[in-house]
Amino acid sequence: MTEKCSFWNQLSLVFPECYESVRQTFIDDKRVCFRLNTIKSLSWDEVCLPQGIEYRPVPGCPDTLSVSSDNRALITHSDAAVTGKIYVQNPSSILLARALPLQESDRVLDLAAAPGGKTSILAIAKSELWAVDCSKSRFFRLRDNMERLGVSSVKFLCADGRKLGRKFFQYFDKILLDAPCSGDARFRASTPDSAWVSSSRLCYYKQTALSAAAWQMLRPGGLLLYVTCALSPLENEAVVSHLLKRKDDARVLPLVLSTAVQPGLSSWGKNKVHDDLRFAVRIVPTNEYDGLFACLIKKFS
User: Is the peptide bond before 285 cis (omega within 30 degrees of 0)?
Assistant: First the structure.
């Protein structure tokens, strides 16, 4: 069986009730989505967008528009994008960054933060915000993006998040872990065959280590939002289940989003997962939304 065939089988596993329509979204061109950066502009009236393009509001995602894929360059190179008044970002990522409830008094960590799209959304709450990434090239891109978007209050750290548990022991109230992953939820049917070789198992080990470190850094009563753009249960349900089975003080909370979702799997193949995974969600892919996985976990003690 080729890796691409294996991918389609995996897609049918995680989206069994809507497989055909979801499969089509990996074949059709994806629309380019971008949001208003409310740090710099309070309304679309303050933004000059390229003319002669059809703009569509993205359902369920306020202050977000989409254009056809052949207009990508016009948007990404527009004055609005270059000056940071808009930011090209998938609505699934936007909704999940907004889903983490923040207060100004919170200490917040964006772990594996680059390129910074979610960081800039978290910054709107004006909390004490830390952004961490271990890749130097991605870290510098993160800082450049924050400057362009007008985010000035972030504390940056270029470090391996797996090694920060003791340094920031129980320091943060809220943590967003958009974990490094295989990224296959963003593949296209036209993706070269060589790119489909699964890296899920390697990602799993890094993800479990990052989630364990995040748990060390989270204070009692705090929230961890675990996110990936991977379809594989090994990178999602298995990672969260690994944490839940080792931490008696961890519970998954319901996560309500304003787009179609499916609950986390209770099992796959012969693999069983923690009962709490029924509260996890997978965003149902469309020609605008990517099929991201998300799980909101509370630390009770």
Answer: no
192 is in an annotated binding site: no
Provide the annotated active-site residues.
229
The stretch 236-251 carries a mean pLDDT of 96
Cα angle value 40/109/111 (rounded, 5°): 100
Helix, strand, coil abundance in the chain, percent, nearest 5:
40, 25, 40
What sign results for the dihedral spanned by CA atoms 19, 21, 26, 30? negative
The domain defined by 31-88 carries CATH number 3.30.70.1170: yes
Q: Is the pTM of this model over 0.90?
A: yes
In 38-153 the beta strands, taken as DSSP E runs, fall at 56-57, 64-67, 86-88, 107-111, 128-133
Q: Quick one: pLDDT at residue 163?
A: 97
To the question of whether residue 106 is assigned a binding role by annotation, the answer is: no
Residue 30 marked ligand-binding:
no
Run of H or E including 157: strand 154-158
The pLDDT tens digits for 67-111 are 999 999 999 999 999 999 999 999 999 999 999 999 999 999 999
- Residue 2: band (very low, low, confident or very high) from pLDDT cuts 50, 70, 90: low
Task: Give 15-51 pLDDT, tens digit per residue.
Answer: 999 999 999 999 999 999 999 999 999 999 999 999 9
CATH class label, 7-30+90-299: alpha beta
- Please tell me whether 4 is known to bind a ligand: no
Domain with CATH 3.30.70.1170 in the chain: 31-88
Contact (Cβ atoms closer than 8 angstroms) between residue 29 and residue 72: no
